[in-house]
């Protein structure tokens, strides 16, 4: 993972926090970025032979984040919407297009 990619994700998470999303608290932003990136990049290994839609990939990241941050997944309830915002912010950074060598990973 490039430092620019990780930094862009952390900035996106900080923006979510500033706009009232309770999940990406400052003390969790680095770990959220690491877990989300690892989950995003391992999708092909975990879903061999299947190509997930963009929304399915976001939901896959949500599952990874919830598994990493919530001791009892069954109790997450409505908070899952906030994890979806975090996952979507990570996906937005990962799918951003730009010149070669910049942030973005379409896969």
Q: Tags for this entry?
A:
107 residues; mainly alpha; 5 helices; 0% strand
Question: What is the beta-strand fraction?
Answer: under 5%
Oligomer: single chain
Broad shape = globular
Most strands sheet: none
Enumerate how many helices there are, as a single number. Answer: 5
Low-confidence spans: 99-103
Helix-and-strand structural type:
mainly alpha
On the 0-100 scale, what is the average pLDDT?
88
Helical content band: 55-70%
Using the CA coordinates, give the radius of gyration: 13 Å
Q: Could you give the order of the helices and strands?
A: HHHHH
Measured distance between first and last alpha carbons = 13 Å
Number of beta-strand segments:
0
Structural commentary:
- The chain has 107 residues and is mainly alpha-helical.
- It contains five helices and no strands.
- The chain has helices spanning 3-18, 29-41, 43-46, 54-69, 80-95.
- Helix 1 packs across helix 2 (29-41) and helix 2 (29-41) packs across helix 4 (54-69).
- The relative contact order is 0.19.
